[in-house]
Amino acid sequence: MVVLVLASHIFPSKNNFIKALMKKHPEITTIVMNVNSKKTSMVLGEREQVLYGKGFIEDTLCGKVFRISPKSFYQINAVQTEVLYGKAIELADLKGKETIIDAYCGIGTIGIIASSHVNKVIGVELNRDAVKDAITNAKRNKVNNIYFYNQDAGEFMNQMAAKKQSVDVVFLDPPRSGSTEEFMNSMILLNPKKVVYISCNPATLERDLAYLVKRGYEVKKAIPVDMFPGTEHVEVITLLQKA
């Protein structure tokens, strides 16, 4: 999939460009034009136009097929992603009766992969396009015990806690900036027995773990996974339990 980000919807010689690109790279299956006229740190804008193909690609991960759209997050190292998610589920030590939350769930990868190990999965994601893909992915993989919500995960957990609802495990895989105190306070209010925190930034992971430890959780185990060999970047899976 190729995503072209332009400042304007005007694209002279668009068809000639597509033909030349496809001739040089016949492995491309879809081309999408994204329009972003704003001068901000955000790469992608709201408007999209499919120039070639279906507008999405698919990949197989841990035996499940996932649809990936231009605005959806997906780990780029599929081989190590299987290790990452496999270890995360292993750390949770699921028995089959749990209700879990997949916070920052994206296109539903962790929740869908974990669905066969639990009773119920709740996926929460703020990105509307990612949630659409997540619902499609659950149907594609015939997963019937997962429910997706297009909402801020912290607000969602606050609402659950207000209704006296509970979950057994929370999986969270936040961006490099880490989680927020608001999110973690909501999670603490929901009182899960276990938290599986997947982090791509050791500095924000250390900060967030310290916050959770001060509020009744205990770090049980941490496993690094090398997602980008030859670089200094590493993902870390951490299991926390109620002290």
From TrEMBL:
Please name one Pfam family that this protein belongs to.
tRNA_U5-meth_tr
- Which GO biological process annotations does it have? rRNA base methylation
- Keyword field: Methyltransferase, S-adenosyl-L-methionine, Transferase
* EC assignment: 2.1.1.189
Question: What GO molecular function annotations does the UniProt record carry, in alphabetical order?
Answer: rRNA (uridine-C5-)-methyltransferase activity
Uppermost EC category: transferase
Q: Which SUPFAM superfamilies match?
A: S-adenosyl-L-methionine-dependent methyltransferases
Q: Which PANTHER family match?
A: RNA M5U METHYLTRANSFERASE, TRNA (URACIL(54)-C(5))-METHYLTRANSFERASE
The name on file for this protein is 23S rRNA (Uracil-C(5))-methyltransferase RlmCD
Q: Specify the species.
A: bioreactor metagenome
Lineage of source species: unclassified sequences, metagenomes, ecological metagenomes
Q: What is this protein's gene name?
A: rlmCD_24
